[in-house]
Amino acid sequence: MSRDPARAATQFFGGRVCLDFANTMDWRTSDAPQELIPDYAAFLSWSNTRGTLASKAVARLRVLGARKPAAVEAIMREARALRGEIWEAADALCGGKSVRLAPFNRLLAALPAQPGLVRDGAGYVHDLRGADPEEPLWPVLWSLTALLSSKDAARLGCCQAQGCGWFFVDESPNHSRAWCSSEVCGNRERARRAYSKRRPVRSP
Fold first, then answer.
1. Domain spans of the chain?
2. With left for phi above 0 and alpha for psi between -120 and 50, is residue 12 left, alpha or beta?
3. If DSSP states are collapsed to H, E and C, what string results for the chain?
């Protein structure tokens, strides 16, 4: 394993917020998966870097989270459960199967209405004020709803690099994308295959 966890946490190859959230478990299909958002503080940092929460909201949620440790621990359990459901759904779509919608519909039923947008730095984010510690989860679910209800659901791919398991929307012209990133997993797989070809075969 060579991908640095700190760097991997800021590599967004999925093309959609919900897929990048699913990809917060690095080396998902390997024997040694690496958690990229181990706690609520890391989840907030990821949300801010990904552009789903404004900096001011993140600052407020850090304070709120410090005051309610039990609540944010419960939210992290919910986040990991949601991530697992997204893995299952994405694997189903990649395999041409139907998605089990009940878990998502249950969560969506409890969500507030999707808010408007506000300026944050050079971009725009949902107008979430940092008042509810569950706010980092909401843009993930909104993104998932948009993905599943669009034609992009049929273009989901999963990185073919050994042990990676990251998901992405394949927007290549001929739908032939094989890697989460050609520069990361693609280069590593090409190097691995080249090494395998050069390695001498031992006599029995």
1. 5-198
2. beta
3. CCCCHHHHCCCCCCCCHHHHHHCCEECCCCCCCEECCCCHHHHHHHHHHHCCCCHHHHHHHHHHHHHCHHHHHHHHHHHHHHHHHHHHHHHHHHCCCCCCCHHHHHHHHCCCCCCCEEEECCEEEECCCCCCCCHHHHHHHHHHHHHHCCHHHHHEEECCCCCCCCEEECCCCCCCCCCCCHHHHHHHHHHHHHHHHHCCCCCC
In DSSP terms, 119 is beta-bridged to 124
Which residue in the block uniquely carries the two structure tokens 């640095």? 4
CA 190, 194, 197, 201 dihedral sign is: negative
CATH of domain 5-198: 1.10.3300.10
Report whether 58 contacts 120 (CB < 8 A): no
What's the Rg (C-alpha) of the chain?
A: 19
Summarised one tens digit per residue, pLDDT across range 136-189 is 999 999 999 999 999 999 999 999 999 999 999 999 999 899 999 988 898 876
Percent of the chain past pLDDT 70, that is, above it, reads: 91
The pair of three-digit structure tokens given for residue 196, joined into one six-digit string: 């395998």
| Position 122, amino acid | A
Q: Whole-prediction pTM value?
A: 0.91
* d(C-alpha 104, C-alpha 86), whole Å: 9
